[in-house]
Fold this protein.
Amino acid sequence: MIAFILRRLMVAVPVLLLLVVVTFVLMYAAPGSPFATERGVPPFVLANLEREYGLDRPFAVQIWTYVSRIVTQFDFGPSFVYRDQDVNDLIRQGFPVTLTYGFWAFLLAVLVGGTLGIVAAIRHNSWLDYLAVGISVGAQVLPNFVLAPILVLVFTLWLGWLPGGGWRGGQAEYIVLPVIALGTSYMASIARIARASMLEVLSSNFIRTARAKGLPGWRIVLHHALKPALLPIVSYLGPAFVGMITGSVVIDIAFSTGGIGQFFVASALNRDYGVMMGITVLFGALTIFFNLLVDVAYAWIDPKIRY
Amino acid sequence: MKRLTLLASVATLAAATLAAATAATAPAALAAEVAPGDTLAEDQTFSYSILDQFPTLDPQLNEEVQGSHVISQLFEGLTRQDGDGNVIPAGATQWTSEDNTVWTFTLRDDAKWSNGDPVTAADYVYAWRRAADPATASPYSWYVELSSIAGAAEVISGAAAPDTLGVEAVDDHTLKVTLTQPLPFFPAVVTYATFMPTHEATVEAFGPDWTKPGNIVSNGAYTLEELAVNEFFRLAKNPQYWDAENVQITEITGYIINDRNQSVTRWEAGEFTMMDDLPAGTYPDLLAQYPDETFSTPRLCSYFYAINVTESGNPALQDVNVRRALSYMLDRNVIVDQVLKGGQLPAYNFAHVQTAGFEPPEIDYASWSQQERMEKARELMAQAGYGPDNPLELDLIYNTSDDHKALATVAAQMWKPLGVNITLSNYEWQSYIDIRGEQNFDLARSGWCGDYNEASTFLDLLTTTHGSNDGKYSNAEVDALMKASRTMENPNEAYTEVEQIVADEMAIIPVYHYTQNFLLDDDIRGWPMNNVENNWYIQDIYRVVTE
Amino acid sequence: MAPLTSGGATLADTRALADVPRGRSLWSDARRRFWRNKAAVAGLVVLTAIALFALLGPLAAPWSYEEIDWAVLGNVSEAGRPSLATGHWFGTDSLGRDLFARTVQGTQISLMVGIVGALIAVVVGTLYGAVAGYFGGRVDGAMMRTVDVLMSIPYMFVLILLLVVFGRSILMLFIGIGLISWLEMARIARGQTLALKGREFVEAAVATGVHPFRIILRHIVPNLLGVIIVYATLLVPSMIIYESFISFLGLGVQEPLTSWGALINVGAAEMRNGTIWQLLFPLGFFVMGLFAFFFIGDGLRDALDPKDR
């Protein structure tokens, strides 16, 4: 197992390098300069700016400088748009925010969605099943960019219970709405996955055997069915992480949380090469990490899987 | 999406109101002057929302309007504006000039930095050199050149050392500036952030991090306490400020809210005091709901469609009849009264009609009924050889914004009966200015805000060599008139003439003149309602007790 | 457990040989079970209705999707209400355009995006994942690392760059969605294949020297079907949501074209301006469409899953 993890980590390095190069090329192919303004920047001012950011140097040199700076100093360089900030500052501010509400949202989704899915599967085709399915589909039906303004309307404007946005270092009342808005979309997916896989497991031979042996229903579920039924949820961890970044865009825009998602999209639209590269590399590294985690978890849950 | 245009399309610069610009001025009222009968409220905090995160709080690097609002609270330049847009003393108590070319500013001797250091003429010299220095790589360094300071062009291009810039500290409290040409409104030019002083020791000690909370040293009425990018920032009253005892508002909080509808909801929930830039069409309903808290004030900006008359545009656009037909067909009253609904003015000429001293010409089609315009448009279009049988295909580009999208959609439908088929193309801001700058369009949504309150700030745009003349309109007479206007006794006559030519040739399709639409709590007093450039200083306002 | 196809065939053969006059294949069996599932049939009816709405709606609508009703513009919250008299059955949007016609148009785009995206994902993703999982070892490593690389390129950047470099169009949207939609499917198919690989029937097939690709197509893929269908039904609406997310970023289809997501997005933004129908009608179609896909997928799962017999 340790050899397997090491091997995967070693593969991750060239993968990341490739990612850097591909993103770099794509970025340079795109029209639009980060320094262009409506009033037209005079050529010598543009030259000053390009020199400042090293854009006047050959392409290969730029990549080399960029990569070596990350490797040796863990420095992602300056932001091209936010002149007071460098990319490390922005990631240091935004990433913990996204991670915090992403974590709670995922937890909420696993607890609520997983329970819904498993209950629905156990009481297959009963009213409980229909209710659980209805709730989970209902949650998926409302995209979070619809849910977010509704939440603000209800909890901020009408009830006045919670602030309509902000983060303020992650105080509890600021976390609630983002977690609900983000968590519901996960919840639906997890409920569906849990239900489908639980049904699959319950109809498999070893459960039938267990039933035939006369074991009580709850023991079958807890001791035999739960673990294999959870397997696909684990595989959802990777997509959930990607979903967190994507969802974070909506959450950050709707609730002004200052998370990474907002930086991510803004940088692409504003041609903020520095931030764009930094978040891509970070995101890429973490995705690889989460995928590895999923595989390890798979192996841990189901020792039959061969590597 | 609207909300991601980081560099706002406009930059407000200094006003050229000449009222207070010459010779020594009596110190005008500064800071909040509590009107008799007003009882100050217990809570003196102010908060507002902005659409996008500003890129920087460094006065010399700033180039857009949201950042400059915050910088105006943190820093104080030689002069600033009052509620009506007049130039008033700030860091300088008085100023004199020789032939409007050599300017001498006398600084107040009680001004201090937030760390207690005195503000001296050397701080201004340092800041101005820094703005021009290529090593700073300021995107706004061209403004130093625009202000005609001697040696600016050479310093910016790297041909001369920064210390050759024509600004000099005669003593601690006297600043001498040499210009390359007479500029009677120079004291108005220096209200802008680029010319605010910076604290040398702080900048040198922290480098790019110097504007971060904890590092920053400023000389304005407020200091920066907290800042989270894309979330919020908080300023507190600066006890070292020379006029601190007259500053009433103790704390300013700004929220970055990328969705304006969301922003309205949160203002309604009482989360902040002010929000401007209301979503199109919401003004009347908000006014009905909050009659004392919804405002519409003039704003020196013009909205228009640029017409590409170069080879890359549709050749039909080189025909003046086609351009006229398009302009006639556009029902501006519908756009203003039924789409925007915020008190904007229908535009038939370019410069905002409320620009100081400006006299718009009598433009024929402005006085016609829309029926007449449409008939004329059909006629002209038929003459040009186009109509429903032979449709004209045009590409209209706009940058992401709900308002631009709405206007472009409406305009396309208005032009349709003429046999004009519009393809709408939406681009993000950075791509958009690229595409527009390279003339890859037929019609382009454009907006222009006055740098100062004088019509040339608009009309210069239509001269052949102007960097933002993206339709590439060119008329020798316009160029000559605009050049001549600089030394004219009464340039406004020339401006009227230019507008007439532009209207006859339909160089652009004017759409509307802006208003500033905003929500403001009704317990705020002293808000500058008549500042057409939308410059505000929180030190001038205060909260009162209302029943 | 017997592999699906051979088992079904054997069963059918046996019955054909016995007293049943007409042979019943696995698929007709499944069809029968599907028709017995009320929810699934209801879903199919709803989906058919929505598809007909999208196809025939333009013929019924008195307004086109881009026309502005000038009488309504400027007073949408009053004059733009849903009404039979004005011909705006669903009301109008904030620019006075007929919401019925726009919903029809949006339905066309959304269904197209959802179905195309899901098809690409199912075909490419399943085969890719099954091949990787079945062969394992280096092949698996290389193939799945490729997926890792593709997945770790933030697809939003790719899409934004595509839409910026080549301009915004429906085709670019399809290419962009097609590029990424199969990746998760591949991972899921691979994960399931890993579990299936150890099963007796696969080992039996390997032992009897069946060609690997035949094993994948005949034995692995059919057994993935349940999971694939459940995932594909999840995928169609999630593609539709994904498209709306792109619209939310302002990178979706160009005006005056629209989509469910774009309409919902605008409706949600205008929610507080007294024009709630702008949210409710598109959202209603979205909800119905989503439930329909869900119930159909569920019905298919029950119908096709041999283990429920």
Q: What stands out?
A: The two ends of chain A are 9 Å apart (CA to CA). The first helix of chain A runs from residue 2 to 29. Residues 268 and 276 of chain A are 6 Å apart (CA to CA).
